[in-house]
Amino acid sequence: MAIKGRLVLTLILIVVFCAFPEAGAESDGSSDYRAVTGPCAFQFPRDHGPHADYRTEWWYYTGNVTSEDGRDYGFQFTFFRNRLISDAAKRRWPGPWSRWRSDTLILLHMAVSDLTQGRFVHHRDAARAVPGMAGAGIRDGRVRIFLKKSELILQGEEHRLQGSGDDMELKLVAVPQKSPVFHGKNGYSKKGNAPERASCYYSFTRMGVSGILEVAGRRVRVTGSAWMDHEYSTSPLERGIVGWDWFSLQLSDRTELMLYQLRRADGSVHPVSQGTLVRPDGSKKNLQKADFEVRVLDHWTSPRSGATYPSGWRIRVAAQDLDLTVSPRLKDQEMAGEGLDGIDYWEGSVSVRGRGGVDGREVSGLGYVELTGYAGPVFALQPEPMDESGP
After folding, report:
1. Residues 362, 259: Cα–Cα separation, whole Å
2. pTM to 2 decimals?
3. Total number of domains in the chain
4. Among 19, 45, 65, 68, which residue's Cβ finds the most Cβ atoms within 10 Å?
């Protein structure tokens, strides 16, 4: 069971970027699931909910908040949905299919960075989607994803996050301050050369957030800013990609920047790596690999996994005159792979300073960075590759 749990979450994570016929998807001939192969015609609130025709999906929140007494915190709160068996396979199943024989796995990852105390606390859990235990659904425009006592509810403009874990708890309400941003071509976000190596991906890049955090018995009321990603897909990353570096940055001039770099085994960056710059008025500019440069400034080695992660970056987006230095607000924000899934990755709060804009003004900001594949390549458990052209 532990081996199966590791495999399931690895298959979830290797799609990290991260339904309906009109959602830009076609039938995937290699499986019983749908595949993302073109632009995603999002319709809300429907597409805030789960897309059971696709194998993998997640609702991902990160944020930086401050307590009433001036203490700084970062948080991550993520639900994963993974389909274990398709409807077509269920129709071939011998005998009747019971609702207690679940076809879906729900996973939760959550973490709080107590930046004042230099403490990082994280929790993860998983369960099959059976009544009263876990599930994901939408009814009358209200989305609910839950796992035991933790849940995410999206209704109207409010995103309600409630999570309970070892030595931590959060109860937060996030409200978008900008319209959703569709990455890539109307949400079609490529992760490889073949058309189906892709996901449907949108974000709320700036949300006001408030509520309560509890860490190690200390309960505080907080306010701040959050970022939300929602992504769904069927096909994993192209074989040969060992991991990725993902950045979500909120700048003081109300610009936001999302970038991801897909790393190959030889250290090179895959050419489909890309990003999105969101202007203060909410309009966006798609960025290709040639439009930005990410240079590592420092490293940190985990005392648990032994992995050495980048720990500081200089990011340049020449066409936008952005020159940013990104620094971890706490060196050790590693989600060490304890328990069910055994996956090691770094996910943490960062600060930003630099210059940007046509007048070269100074900007600052906060954000989150995710680093995978440094404790071992994520492709190690991938299925055999599909036929596809390109390098």
Report:
1. 21
2. 0.88
3. 1
4. 65
Residue 302 forms part of a structural domain: yes
Per DSSP, the residues of 63-105 read EEEEETTS-EEEEEEEEEEEESS-HHHHHTSSSPPPTTS-SEE
CB 58 within 8 A of CB 99: no
Nearest to 289 by CA among 324, 250, 251, 245: 245
Which range, 111-115, 316-320, 335-339, is most confident?
111-115
Structure tokens at 330: 């706490």
In a domain, 387, yes or no: no
> What is the C-alpha to C-alpha distance for residues 217 and 352, in angstroms, rounded to an integer?
30
Dig out the tokens for 320 from the structure. 């936008």
**Which residue range forms the structural domain that includes residue 254?**
2-381
Kind and range of the H or E run holding 9: helix 2-13
Name the nearest CA neighbour of 57 among 68, 71, 47: 47
Q: How far is CA 196 from CA 123, 213, 237, 263, 387, in A?
A: 32, 40, 10, 19, 11
CB 239 within 8 A of CB 270: no
Q: Of 49, 45, 60, which is closest to residue 19 (Cα–Cα)? A: 49
Whether 390 maps to a domain, the answer reads: no
CA distance 222 to 68: 6
**Can you give the length of the chain in residues?**
391
> Comparing C-alpha atoms, which of 288, 256, 272 is closest to residue 181?
256
If you ran DSSP here, which 8-state letter would residue 185 be given? B
Tokens describing residue 59: 């609702």
- How is residue 197 annotated by DSSP? S
What tokens does 248 get? Answer: 């979500």
pLDDT category of residue 21 using cuts at 50, 70 and 90: very low
CATH of the domain at 223: 2.40.370.10
58 with 229: CB under 8 angstroms?
yes
Answer whether residue 261 is part of any domain: yes
Q: Which of 19-28, 42-51, 147-156 has the lowest mean pLDDT?
A: 19-28
